[in-house]
Amino acid sequence: MPGAANTLPLGIDNRGTIVGTWGNAAGTYQGFLMTGAGQFVNVNYPGGPEVTGIDGINDRGDLCGYHSASSNGPYKAFIALAQ
Fold it and tell me: What is the pTM of this model?
């Protein structure tokens, strides 16, 4: 992710969409999608938790990941189905 302190790609689909997690210098982590065309999109669990991570994407665009209100956890899993 441009401007990130760190970036961790974790999954890719057959269209070349890459998903993962990026963090800023303040320690806040967000999920991301990077399309095959190179466009970055932030992905955050609704409610604005401090941590959102995207672990995987399938060819329908469904996402799986985790979120937490604190970088210390507890972490909860989620699945976001494509529309």
Answer: 0.86
